[in-house]
Amino acid sequence: MYDSLVNTKPIIYNSAMKSRLKQVAVAAVLSLCVLISAVVPVFAQSGQVLGIHIMSTHDFDQAEDLLKSSDSNEWHYLTIPLTLGDVQKHEEWQTFFDKAREAQLIPIVRLATRAEGADWQVPNRKEMTDLIGFLSTLDWPTSDRYIIVLNETNHAKEFGGSINPEKYAEILRFTSQWARSEDAGYKVLPAAMDLAAPNGSETMEAFTYLDRMVAYDPDIFSHIDYLNSHAYPNPGFSASPSRKGQNSLEGFKYELSYLKEKTGKDFEVFITETGWIDNASTGRWLSSYYQYALQHVWSDKRVKAVTPFILQGSPGPFAGFSFLDAAGKPTRQYLAFQKLL
Known about the structure:
By secondary structure, this protein is an alpha/beta fold. The protein has a single domain (about 45-340), classed as TIM Barrel. The chain is about 35% helix and about 15% strand. It has helices at about 1-5, 15-40, 60-65, 90-105, 125-135, 165-180, 205-215, 250-265, 285-295, 330-340; strands at about 50-55, 75-80, 105-110, 115, 120, 145-150, 185-190, 225-230, 270-275, 305. The strands form three sheets. The chain has a five-stranded parallel sheet, with helices on one face.
């Protein structure tokens, strides 16, 4: 084979052949560029785990202002709820996804139902398929589509006024199976637990809740792709970032250890809610708290995203957590967090 190649006479190209070869080469390069530009990283690159939690597509512009970077290779994250009331808003959500692609922001979509008085409705199967079906009509900015199945279901108010780990396990399994059957790149995250919740009539301790899910369905965690955590600096959303414990900023480590024990699998984690309340004991320390968290807690290689709660929570009960005040101006939270970006 080698001799035949060496002794082959050189090919003589005329001008027409050369022109055609150039055209083919240019077309190949352009096709490769289009292919590369269409593929979005599964995760933001190392050190770019940060993002923000928003409550509405209308918060996008302010979120982009917070997270914008001069580095064209940087991607950040946006956690956002999708309610049953949103499934008629195709144009609004497609615009949101289009803008996210342009701004290099990766959506983490939390599936939600609708409020009934003080409680969030427990979904039926049709409602969950409606939410997935709506998302499947959209052109996503990323190849992997991150979805969260409900929110803090160890609170009765988040689950129709009841605490029912067995029912939630059924919903999680069904939703995961349905999403995966779409073969559209969905990555399923479970409802995050409130790690500081006690056992009582309105809440259930997180690992007690998880134990009941596993007792009911031993394979339940085979239906998730990542852990979803709300690792807040408790007690009082005011503790030092160096504090250890289940209800500390490092609470996600306890959850990951639990999943390892139950499944034998090493999961990665999206921390879709976290952050301090701005009060007399935390206000002047916010910058150093966030800096420490990024360097010593969220630097854990298993952490894929951190989206503090919340961009716009003022006025209202979340004003102390809000990155923007009622007039839309940056708060101390915003300014402290922005230094990390």
